[in-house]
Amino acid sequence: MPSYTVTVATGSQWFAGTDDYIYLSLVGSVGCSEKHLLDKPFYNDFERGAVDSYDVTVDEELGEIQLVKIEKRKYWLHDDWYLKYITLKTPCGDYIEFPCYRWITGEGEIILRDGRAKLSRDDQIHILKQHRRKELETRQKQYRWMEWNPGFPLSIDAKCHKDLPRDIQFDSEKGVDFVLNYSKAMENLFINCFMHMFQSSWSDFADFEKIFVKISNTISERVMNHWQEDLMFGYQFLNGCNPVLIQQCRKLPEKLPVTTEMVECSLERQLTLQEEVEQGNIFIVDFELLDGIDANKTDPCTLQFLAAPICLLYKNLDNKMIPIAIQLNQVPGDENPIFLPSDAKYDWLLAKIWVRSSDFHVHQTISHLLRTHLVSEVFGIAMYRQLPAVHPIFKLLVAHVRFTIAINTKAREQLICEYGLFDKANATGGGGHVQMVQRAMQELTYTSLCFPEAIKARGMDNKEDIPNYFYRDDGLLVWEAIQKFTTEVVDIYYESDQVVKEDQELQDFVKDVYVYGMRGKKASGFPKSIKTREKLSEYLTVVIFTASAQHAAVNFGQYDWCSWIPNAPPTMRAPPPTAKGVVTIEQIVKTLPDRGRSCWHLGAVWALSQFQENELFLGMYPEEHFIEKPVKAAMARFRKNLDTIVSVIADRNKNKKLPYYYLSPDRIPNSVAI
User: Fold this and answer.
1) Which residue ranges does the record assign to the PLAT domain (predicted)?
2) What CA–CA distance (Å, rounded) separates 72 from 436?
3) Mean pLDDT score across all residues of the chain
4) Cα distance between residue 55 and residue 190, in whole Å
């Protein structure tokens, strides 16, 4: 009688093993086997991290094995089991791999296909077509769209983390409990004694060191020592944790009536302001998005304020970016003066602090939350709903949506919900952050997620004219490496544009993103369908780059740049000044966050800047969803290209007082998971 050797690999994460009964059935082209109990006498099967082998003898020839069916039945208490893969050695000596990388819960069952990636047109056998269809029908019931707030991209229909499908939950929910992590952060930073001191102001700038001295590192310490300098202020728009707003000023806006006379002491080329604009030396950051956003009113004991500044910057003869004019609100007038470097020291300093605070709000809510977390969740939900596990695009993308839906669900549960942690320290808490996302959705476009296009649209693409923009330089290297990789994968499975057009599952995935994620907004420019291999490669590059590199660029620098509170105040406790010559240092300190809010802010930026335990970085694919040699070779080339980029960035950073490493591939996690 034919005999098969079945090798079963159990996951190595916590609680991956099981004591339940595990049964296996084989489905072949000419017959099906009986159900076989996988059990060895006097042996603890399916322990965490174990690889167990079993001999399975069948009564008759089964032909070519098409499916493997695994059933789990209760032994004593229900426990979930994480099955990595099954390998089958046939009577002929051939090996067939069946990747799984999923949890089997309760008295569940799972049906696996072999690991070869297949488009729907490749499946001609009825049983395989049926398996493909049933998998998507099941997933579409599990992964449902939900509107969390009007105008937001749709998200997963789950009130809390435990409501999610088991396959996309964190291995340990405790590890991503925001309340626990923030409290732990404050304890680790020795600042928990200040955490309840709301309404208690710091004495002066030096007083902020009481919550800083224990946690200094190269960048944050340098920020503390140089934050008041114009050069440090300008540098952050290029290489801080929100390097996505600055743009070349092609025309001075009428709402900022700045003249040559106002700024001539800052201009170094003996040109008028208009001539400097024409030569491409003037840059602008406009926080118009914040205009009219409601400030946080959740604490009746503390008034909180927002501004919507416009900041004009100048590229000096040393090619350094310096601020030359700041207007703190959008409508010019006598009570909205233009602050200048030539003004009194504290007038100018407070104007810059208002810009830094505004930058913090846009960074957290738009650059970080909306444009990486929420967008990546949309791609993830659409992928699970429309692409079966055997589809090559599913196999490619699954690593890049790992834990994204889970972290966002946890954020909606604890962080950005009503009375959540976001309300504790942020001036945009209490609903302002919701208004910001609703407003920013009007400007979220597909091309703005295409990194080279986004850089070009802001006029920041010329490396000779605008040197030292490391976010741009490193981002382009990583984008090109990802695009080269996705192009190779697309070319392996799609021999022509026609095959792309005819792949209905792929088209349904793209349509789901457009209709539900982008709410069917034509102006978003998101494609409703994809018709060429080139466009498919670009689309996949957007998905992977957004989840990995873009998130890394705006997330992991938060502690470096925001831990010195005056450099990134999460709230302001007095309104913007309406006149010059009246600002004192005492007034600035009373405007900055109180001790309690400073501590919650510091705990947040520390916790958000940490990598996950067992983090998987860009190019790491330990789950072998692909088994074909051409794709594995493409992955190896991708890793080699990324290693080269790591070396280039490391060489560039040598001896730099402010190294830029957020886009070094060895520091870019595969997915949005924090």
Assistant:
1) 2-118
2) 47
3) 94
4) 57
Dihedral angle of Cα 297, 299, 302, 303, to the nearest 10 degrees: 0
Check the annotation: does 368 bind a ligand: yes
Q: CA 436, CA 110: separation in Å to the nearest integer?
A: 43
3-state secondary structure of 155: strand
Q: Is 126 annotated as a binding residue?
A: no
Examine the pLDDT at 397 and tell me if it is beyond 90. Answer: yes
**Positive or negative: CA dihedral 153, 156, 158, 164:** negative
Angle at 565 between CA 300 and CA 370, to 5 degrees: 75
Model confidence at 509, pLDDT cuts 50, 70, 90, reads very high
Q: Rounded distance, CA 12 to CA 609, Å?
A: 26
With 80 as the cut, is the pLDDT of residue 186 above it?
A: no
Strand, coil or helix: 542: helix
Please tell me whether residue 79 adopts helix, strand or coil conformation.
coil
Tokens 């076989």 label which residue?
36
Complete DSSP assignment for 434-477? HHHHHHHTTT--SGGGSHHHHHHHTT---TTTS---HHHHHHHH
80 annotated to a ligand binding site: yes
| Res 364 pLDDT > 70 | yes
Q: Please give the single-letter amino acid code of residue 402.
A: R
**C-alpha–C-alpha distance, residues 392 and 409, integer Å:** 27
Element at 362 (helix H, strand E):
helix 345-362
Could you give the CA distance from residue 636 to residue 394 in angstroms, rounded to a whole number? 19
Residues ≥6 apart with Cβ < 8 Å to 590: 201, 573, 574
Q: Give the pLDDT confidence score for residue 206 in this predicted structure.
A: 78
Report the C-alpha gap between 71 and 316 in whole angstroms: 69
- Taking the C-alpha atoms of residue 592 and residue 600, their distance in angstroms, rounded to an integer, is 14
Residue 539 and residue 461 in contact, taking contact as beta carbons nearer than 8 Å: no
Q: Does the pLDDT at position 664 exceed 60?
A: yes
Confirm whether residue 39 is marked as ligand binding: yes
Taking the CB of residue 411, how many other CB atoms lie within 10 A of it?
A: 19
SS (H, E, C) 313-351: EEECCCCCEEEEEEECCCCCECCECEECCCCCHHHHHHH
H-run or E-run covering 103: strand 95-104
356 — pLDDT class (breaks 50, 70, 90): very high
> Is 70 annotated as contributing to ligand binding?
no
CB-based contacts of 495, cutoff 8 Å, min separation 6: none
User: Left (φ > 0), alpha (ψ -120 to 50) or beta: where does 100 sit?
Assistant: alpha
pLDDT in tens, 521-531: 999 999 999 99
| Closest to 572 in 3D by CA, of 596, 590, 586 | 590
**pLDDT exceeds 70 at position 507:** yes
| pLDDT at 216 > cutoff 90 | no
Contact 305, 576 (CB under 8 A): yes
Contact 109, 67 (CB under 8 A): no
Residue 451 has pLDDT above 90, yes or no: yes
* 373 carries a ligand binding annotation: yes
